[in-house]
Amino acid sequence: MNLYLYEALSGYWAAPEIATNLIVFFNMLGALVLGLLVGYERSYHGRAAGMRTYGLVSMASAALTVLAGYPTFWYGGHISSYVGADPTRIIQGIVTGVGFLGAGVIMREGMNISGLTTAASLWASSAIGIMVGVGFYPAAILLALLSAICMMWVSRLENWLPSRQAIAVVLQFKKGVAPSETRLRARALTQGYEIASGTISINFKDGMPEWKFVAIALGKGKGASMADLARELTNYEGVENFFLSHARN
After folding, report:
1. What is the 3-state secondary structure (H, E, C) of the chain?
2. What CA–CA distance (Å, rounded) separates 227 from 215?
3. Which of 127, 141, 153, 157 has the greatest count of CB atoms below 10 A from its CB?
4. CA distance 211 to 217
5. Dmax of the chain from CA atoms?
6. What is the pLDDT of residues 136-171, one digit of tens each?
């Protein structure tokens, strides 16, 4: 093998380069933990973005930020001879472009939002690609492993931690019926749910009032199942039609 080529490749795995990658790794790990903490609070309150989404975004953001602090270690320490343009501008373009791609996979149907974790994982993948591109191979490998662990296991962690399931409810009342928010809230409490504040929207369609809201269980395992809620709404006076779905991302 050409001696110059060997020296160039060995620079990516030199001791100072490995030490820098470890610094990047611990920054990513800390950001992941803090992101999971914030995401758990949102998940507990029935919001669309959960622990995986916040963890991935926080971790990828830390990766992109911290690698910018060690430009002398980019490209195995050969940045002066390899770089002909400003790599940070290329990174900005990649992150912006992937942001638009992530927006394309986020879908909203009624009160349900899907694709948030996929969008976050796409953004994390762009960070992995950038880190590989600048030569932070160990940190890129660790980021890929952390991202996979986040997507596969954090959902199980969410299920293990105290949580409250959220149900999106659409009620269409019969003509002439005047629904009472107080009565709806009281009825929801009997089923182990509370109507989340700020989620009620009212529409008047074909002479029939239509209410949409998110009901959150009072605690883990306390809310009635969706089948039980359906039976309850079937016998609820004044309801013409209803639609139930899990409010999740």
Report:
1. CCHHHHHHHHHHHCHHHHHHHHHHHHHHHHHHHHHHHHHHHHHHCCCCCCHHHHHHHHHHHHHHHHHCCCHHHHHHHCHHHHCCCCHHHHHHHHHHHHHHHHHHHCEEECCEEECHHHHHHHHHHHHHHHHHHCCCHHHHHHHHHHHHHHHHHHHHHHHHCCCCCEEEEEEEECCCCCCCHHHHHHHHHHCCEEECCCCCEEEEECCEEEEEEEEEECCCCCCCCHHHHHHHHHCCCCEEEEEEEECCC
2. 15
3. 127
4. 19
5. 87
6. 778 878 888 888 787 777 777 777 777 778 888 888
Q: Residues of CATH 3.30.70 domain(s) within the chain?
A: 166-246
Q: Are 158 and 40 in contact (CB under 8 A)?
A: yes
In CATH terms, is domain 166-246 a member of 1.10.3470?
A: no
Residue 111 reports pLDDT greater than 80: no
Q: What pLDDT is attached to residue 78?
A: 66
